[in-house]
Specification:
The protein has 5 helices and 5 strands, in the order E-H-E-H-E-H-E-H-E-H. By secondary structure, the chain is α/β, with parallel strands linked by helices. The protein has one domain: 3-Layer(aba) Sandwich (Rossmann fold). The chain has a 5-stranded parallel beta sheet, with helices on both faces. Strand 1, helix 1 and strand 2 form a beta-alpha-beta unit. The longest helix has 14 residues.
Length: 124
């Protein structure tokens, strides 16, 4: 059975790229939303195996979403992979401090993304 993944990204192109990577990997069912607010609405609807979120989004950003997930017993164990165009130490540190399992800077290759998914899920 495919693992449900919540993909939270405001860029349609990045959503399409990440979805194609995960779907090509064959074991993922990707649920796409455009921002953190939509993610908050989607979280209770499915038992997600992974959350992939961008940092910079309108409304609720990826750091705020990660903090929310970690603060809720029902969602706290879901692995979170944070992606961002800002690979600076402060942005990476903010994501990890908020509770992200892994961080990946854009742009990235399909293999780099799959490696980050494995790290987030505890496989590396």
């Amino acid at each position: 059975m495919a693992q449900p993944v919540l993909l939270v990204e405001d860029s349609r192109a990045v959503r399409a790229f990440v979805s194609s990577i995960l779907e090509s990997a064959g074991d993922y069912d990707v649920h796409e939303v455009e921002n953190g607010f939509e993610a908050l609405r989607a979280l209770p609807r499915t038992d997600f195996a992974l959350i992939v979120t961008d940092v910079n989004m309108p409304d609720v950003n990826g750091i705020e979403l990660t903090r929310f997930v970690r603060g809720q017993a029902k969602f706290a164990e879901i692995p979170v992979l944070v992606i961002s165009t800002d690979a600076s130490h402060p942005d990476t540190q903010r994501a990890m401090t908020a509770g992200a399992n892994a961080f990946l800077a854009k742009p990235f290759t399909a293999q780099q993304f799959l490696d980050a998914v494995a790290r987030a899920q505890g496989g590396q």
